[in-house]
Structures are given as C-alpha cells and as structure tokens.
Amino acid sequence: MEKLGRNDRCWCGSGKKYKQCHYAMDQKIESYALAGHMVPDREMIKNPEQIEGIRESSKINIAVLDYVAEHIKLGMSTEEIDKMVYDKTIELGGIPAPLHYEGFPKSVCTSRNNEVCHGIPSKDIFLLDGDIVNVDVSTIYNGYYSDSSRMFCIGNVNEENKRLVEVAKQAIEVGLSEVQPYHFLGDMGQAIQDYVKKQGYSVVLDFGGHGVGLEFHEEPMITYIGPRKTEMLMVPGMVFTIEPMINAGKPDVLIDEESGWIVYTEDGSMSAQWEVTVLVTEDGYEILTY
Ligand code: MF3
Ligand code: CO
Q1: Which of 32, 98, 108, 200 is the most buried (most CB within 10 A)?
Q2: What CA–CA distance (Å, rounded) separates 228 from 220?
Q3: Using 50, 70 and 90 to split pLDDT, how confident is the model at 1?
C-alpha cells in the first residue's frame, strides 16, 4: 500500500489532507492487522461521493422491489416478475445488474420453495397457492450497484413455511445488530448461525453475501458461520450485503446442471432468503436497501 505523508491528499479522493481524513482510521486498522486480523483494503472503504452514489442506486433498487410487492400475485408467471423488474428499473434510469451477468439470462432472480437462489424467471413457471418466492433485485444506477431481496407468500401459505420466511427475515435483524465498526464479520456470522440453528433450521454455507457498490460482487465474502473475532474487521465506509439462505432441512445444495444457475436444496426442503445492503458507519450501520 502506498505510504502517504500526513499532509498529502487522502487516498480516498475526498481532496482533504490525509491527517484530516483517513489517517487515524488507517492507524487503527493497521493495529488490528498487526494483531493478525483480516482487515479491509482501500477499495473496500467507500468515500462520501461513492456512498452517495450507492445510496441513490439503492433508492431505485427499493422502488423496484416495492413495485414488485404491490403487483406480485397468485397465478402470475415468474417471467412477468422479470418484466416488471426490467421495465421499472429502466423507467427509473437504472439497469438490472443480473441481465447478462456471467451469462445470467434475465433481469432478476426468482426462487420458489425448494429453490435456494438464482432461480431463472420463465413464462412456464407460475406462482401457485401456498408458494414462497424470493425476488432478488440488483440495480446499477449511474455506475453504482445495490442489491436486495424479499420473500413473498403467495395465497395461503402453511404455518410451517410462514415461519421459515419469518425466521429468514429475523436472521437479517440478528445480523444487523452485530454490525458495528471495529467488530468482526465473524460476530455477525456467528449470531446468525446460532439464531437459525436454535430455530431448527440451517444456513446454506456455499453462498454468502458480498461487498457491493462499485461492482456487483466485491470482496469481502460474507459468511454466516463465525466464530466471533474472526473474518474481516468492519470499518466505516464498508458496504456489503447480508443475505443468509435458510433451509428448513439440511444446508446442502445442488446446482441445476442444465441451466448452470438454479440452486436447489439437496434434500428437497424449503428455503427462504431476505437480503439487505448495509453501510458501516462511525457508530453502527445504515441500511441502504431492505
Ligand atoms: N442477486 C444475487 C446476490 O444477491 C446475485 C445473482 S447473480 C445473477 O448476490 F446473475 F444471478 F443475477
Ligand atoms: Co447479493
């Protein structure tokens, strides 16, 4: 890493002198690194201008999901959800991040029931009475990325599946309560793992959250295993997603070979997921998307 003098301009692009900007924070981070902890590098710490860009992107991301929430209904095909997401995102000046991302064919992921994530919208897949479906919206606006997903209960969902959806939602709250500067991502991971286990469910280990903002998927990878005091140090300016996938049965998953995308629970059990984008602040966190 480039060594800066205290009177040089800060590396973050704020235009301020280093000593009046990220100097003290860098010293603190360095002390954690020396103690053997994983610490973020500069690309993972966003400056105010970038944060504002991600905030604006997040507003569109939320508006698209709100639009889906208003219009999603029993009998609709998942292709219709895809069209809503595409049209609304474009209308608001954004670009759906999934479209053509590493070959993904659609603008949104729609994952039903035993699908864990990366479900591909199709004109042949309909929302049926009792389905639980995750709609995962990722947005590019003005070059900045935001990412969030919600669960929707279609028609009469049984109590068991309703509880799974609620526990997946609550897992986000449990995770958020651990987001604090100079705590560790492992604190957050452990809290989610403990909570979900206690509810009798499991957390998928093969897929995690991620840094987000300047790219769709940035470092660090966000895991939900813990233990506390491990994984990366959380530092103000970091932006990442919390998006644990919760299975009613075992945590193991299978990837559909034909599409190369759709992820299923191996044991056929139901799966639920919510996702938020969160910013670490000086005294806690700010939720950018929900
Ligand atoms: N939206 C997913 C996430 O939360 C990523 C989907 S990748 C895609 O990280 F290509 F399937 F869109
Ligand atoms: Co994500």
Answers
A1: 108
A2: 16
A3: low
What is the pLDDT, as a whole number, of residue 149?
Answer: 98
Q: Alpha-carbon torsion 177, 118, 85, 49, what sign? A: positive
Give me 66's structure tokens.
Answer: 């709100």
Task: Give the three-state DSSP class for 39.
Answer: coil
Confidence tier at 3 by pLDDT (50, 70, 90): confident
Roughly what angle, to the nearest 10 degrees, separates helices 48-71 and 78-91? Answer: 140
Q: Is the CB of 207 under 6 A from ligand 1?
A: no
Q: Is 275 in the pocket of ligand 1 (CB under 6 A)?
A: yes
Give, in order, the Cα–Cα distances in Å from 52 to each of 55, 56, 213, 235. 5, 6, 10, 17
Q: Quote the CA–CA distance of 72 and 85 in Å, as a whole number.
A: 11
Atom of ligand 1 nearest to the CA of 217: 9
Is the pLDDT at 216 greater than 70? The verdict is: yes
Q: Is the CB of 138 within 6 Å of ligand 1?
A: yes
CA distance 34 to 221: 22
Domains and CATH numbers, the chain: 41-289 (3.90.230.10)
**Per-residue DSSP letter, 119:** P
Taking only the tens place, the pLDDT of each residue in 140-156 is 999 999 999 999 999 99
Q: Which residue has the tokens 């469910």?
A: 201
Atom of ligand 1 nearest to the CA of 243: 4
How far apart are the CA of 3 and the centre of ligand 1, in A?
Answer: 36
Question: Rounded to two decimals, what is the model's pTM?
Answer: 0.97
Best residue for ligand 1 mutational test, from 89, 147, 276 (most atoms within 8 Å of Cβ)? 147
